[in-house]
Each structure stands twice: as structure tokens, then as C-alpha cells.
Amino acid sequence: MIELTNERPADAAAIETLLDQAFGPDRHAKSSYSYRKRVSRIWPLCQVARDAGEIVGTIRYWPIMVGPTAAPALLLGPVAVRADARSSGVGGMLIRTSLARAATAGHHLIMLVGDEPYYGRFGFKPAENWGISMRRENPARVLALPIGPAALEGTESIPVPSGIVERWRSVRRRAAKTLAA
């Protein structure tokens, strides 16, 4: 029986092995990984699927900023399911459960890089419909799911890792204090 639980730090090695098996060891070279560098994942949304205590699936979320006003959004991924558990609904369970959690937590926009035929059944559409693109990514694979009526107002832009925006804001605050002194 599959049980969904929150990801724990102790799960890291098993998850990394699963991700390497699912996407290959060169997965870190993908451009979507650049959005995850030096940024902590959104732990309450990161889940694992366990079967008899063993991890058979994982889903993670990362903070990003989108649009000229740097509106907070989520980058979903990676989602991976162990080869012997694929086509059993584990991936769908992870996605549906975590999307519901994200909505309950008040998040307004979720983005990912993936295949629309798979993710479209969860409501994801090409982000280019809203003028959103990601550098070095095929526009057809950059998908977005707005949650709430104002989710995509004024977002025409390229997402950036939230860590970059936070560092930039910190530099601006220090500069403003220096100028005021």
C-alpha cells in the first residue's frame, strides 16, 4: 500500500538515487536546475511515496519569482517514480496532493518544465500563453498552473530563482542605508 509522507532530511540519499535512476546523473545540467541552486526547497510541499517503507516516488517544490513585480511562484519538480512503480498512479497522487497543499497554503502560481500531455491533466498549460518563458528551455515544455483569479496578472516575464531576488533586495536595502547615512 502506498503512503504519502512529507520528505525528511533522512530521505535525501534515497531520493537522489531515485532521481539519478529516473533522469540520469547529468540531470543537474538541465536549465531548470539552475533555479534550484542556493535556494531551499519548500519543505511543507515536498513529499515522498513509500511502499512498505521504501521510497518509490518523490515530488519537490522551489520558490521562484515571476514578472516585473517579482511575484512569488513555485517551481514544481522534479517528480520521479521508481521504474517498477510507474503507471500505478503514484506520480498522479503526488501531484494532486501537493497541488492541493500549495493552494491551501495560499500559493498562486505553479510552474514546471515537462510534457503537456502528462501535466495537462492536472491543469497545466503552456506558460507562453501568459507571456512567460524560461531561458534555455523549449517554450512548449514550460508549463504554468495559475491558482486563483489574479495569479497571472502582469507576469509577462522570465522567472528567476527567489534567492537571486532576495539577494538583490538585500543589496538595495544596504545601498539605501549607506546613501541615507
Automatic annotation (TrEMBL):
It holds the Pfam family Acetyltransf_9. InterPro entries: Acetyltransferase_Eis (IPR051554), Acyl_CoA_acyltransferase (IPR016181), GNAT_dom (IPR000182). GO terms for molecular function: aminoglycoside N-acetyltransferase activity. Residues 2-139 form the N-acetyltransferase domain. GO terms for biological process: aminoglycoside antibiotic catabolic process. Gene3D superfamilies: 3.40.630.30. PANTHER family: N-ACETYLTRANSFERASE EIS. This is N-acetyltransferase GCN5.
